[in-house]
Give the backbone structure.
Amino acid sequence: MRFTKMQGAGNDYVYVNCVDQPPPADPAALAREVSDRHFGIGSDGLILIHPSKIADVRMQMFNADGSESQMCGNGIRCVAKFAYDHELAHKPRLTVETRAGVLTIDVDVVDGTVNQATVAMGAPILEAARIPVELPQETPPRIVDMPLQPYAPWKAPAAWMEDCQLDMRMTCVSMGNPHAVIYCGSVDAVPLESLGPLLENLPIFPERINVHFVEVHSPSEVVMRTWERGSGITLACGTGACAVCVAGVLTGRTDRNLRAHLPGGDLMLHWDETANQVLMTGPAVEVFCGDWPTKE
């Protein structure tokens, strides 16, 4: 099976061109195998590029644990790059079918290949029932700066909470997949490796959740760290950065134009008030190609 390793701001996936070759028989198992950073290729998951009847191509995404997700903001930029560079759809504006709908991507071409892309990510979903978030008591229409303590996985204040100056409130947004945004004074002090999985699997999130800790530098600039459901700590999360942009506006912390600094690089976000859609611009890079042995 021919594959291509690609990354967007360090969010890396193994891509398989299922237009020109048969799709894998068990993509969930394949995702777990190729994602292993010691015994596999090493990635945050697997993305299959299929033909589409309603768009230029169709994207199917699997997390590192084999679970299927709706879409991936960094991943879809790389899908557009692959489609353009490998001439599946050689044009400056492409459409990609995802489980979250059909999205439009404008590619920036330098010397014949795509180096970055802008994705129209669509309207943020703010209704708690659609994210989804389900509280033991009556769930409010929106989860904006909601106190986290009643649902927190810890029983008492911990030293790390003071170290990172944690704001014990969260804002929830879906950008096709669910996100919880929590603000703090220092993202570096957050014990993400232990806290991430606890928050991801809280009972109030029936489909689990992606968790983002955000440090505000100015109304136009933030630093964020991410725990992605099904993949763990990642260097970037495109839909998460979009959710952070929306959460900043909803809580009055940041503006509609935002630069998000992630461990893997920067993403530029804009929540268009008139069209009510989030635009995300960031890099798309092909790392290497290879052949994965198929099992008989």
About this structure: The mean pLDDT is 95. The helical segments are 27-35, 73-85, 159-163, 192-200, 238-251.
